[in-house]
Design a protein that fits this description.
By secondary structure, the chain is mainly alpha-helical. It has 2 domains: 123 residues, Winged helix-like DNA-binding domain superfamily/Winged helix DNA-binding domain (Arc Repressor Mutant, subunit A); 50 residues, no CATH class. The protein is 73% helix and 7% strand. The chain is built from 8 helices and 3 strands. Helix 2 packs across helix 4 and helix 7 crosses helix 8.
C-alpha cells in the first residue's frame, strides 16, 4: 500500500517520535542539572506561567496524579522554591514561586532555549509567528481530540491563567469548532 496518505502518516509518526525523544531527553537533562525531577521542573514552569496554582490545577494541566504533584510541590517547598498559601483550610492551598523559585525557573527556561541538545526549542523559535501559530493550532486540535473539550475548558477557567493564554484558547476553540 504505497500511497501518498500512508507516506504522509509514516513520515509524521517518524518526525513526532524524533521530536518527542529530543524534548524528553532535554527535560531530563535540564532537570537533573538543576537537581530536580522532570515533574518538579514542569511544576515550576506551570507556576511561572500561571503565577499561582493548586495541586489539583497543576495535576490537571500536567495530566499527572495529585499524589505525585503533591510530593513534588512539597519537595519544591522544602527547597525554598515555592511557598504555600492556605486557602479555605489546610487541604486547599495555592502555591507560588519564591524569589529563588523565580530565579531557578528563569535558569530552566534559558537552559531549554540554549539547548542542552534542545533542537526542538531552537527550531520552534526559528519559525515565523505564522508558522508557530499554525503549529499551535494543530497541537491544539490534537490535544482537543485526545483530551476533549473538558481539559481545555478547565485550563481556560483557571484563576491564574494569563489573559493572553485565555484569549488564545478561545480563538483556537472557535477556529476548530
Amino acid at each position: 500500500m504505497d500511497n501518498p496518505r500512508n507516506s504522509l502518516d509514516f513520515l509524521t509518526i517518524c518526525c513526532l517520535r524524533l521530536l518527542w525523544d529530543d524534548i524528553y531527553e532535554n527535560w531530563m537533562m535540564v532537570a537533573q542539572d538543576a537537581g530536580l525531577t522532570v515533574t518538579e521542573e514542569q511544576i515550576l514552569l506551570v507556576l511561572r506561567l500561571a503565577s499561582a496554582s493548586t495541586v489539583t490545577e497543576a495535576a490537571f494541566i500536567l495530566q499527572r496524579d495529585k499524589g505525585t504533584i503533591s510530593k513534588s510541590i512539597f519537595s519544591l517547598e522544602r527547597n525554598g522554591l515555592v511557598r504555600r498559601k492556605v486557602l479555605e483550610d489546610r487541604r486547599y492551598s495555592e502555591f507560588t514561586l519564591t524569589a529563588k523559585g523565580e530565579e531557578v525557573s528563569e535558569e530552566l527556561i534559558n537552559a531549554h532555549i540554549k539547548g542542552r541538545g534542545m533542537g526542538f526549542a531552537k527550531g520552534f523559535l526559528a519559525l515565523s509567528e505564522e508558522e508557530r501559530l499554525a503549529f499551535a493550532r494543530t497541537a491544539f486540535k490534537l490535544a482537543r481530540y485526545v483530551y476533549g473539550d473538558n481539559y481545555l475548558s478547565t485550563v481556560q477557567q483557571m484563576q491564574n491563567l494569563p489573559v493572553e493564554a485565555g484569549r488564545l484558547i478561545r480563538l483556537l476553540k472557535e477556529e476548530t469548532d
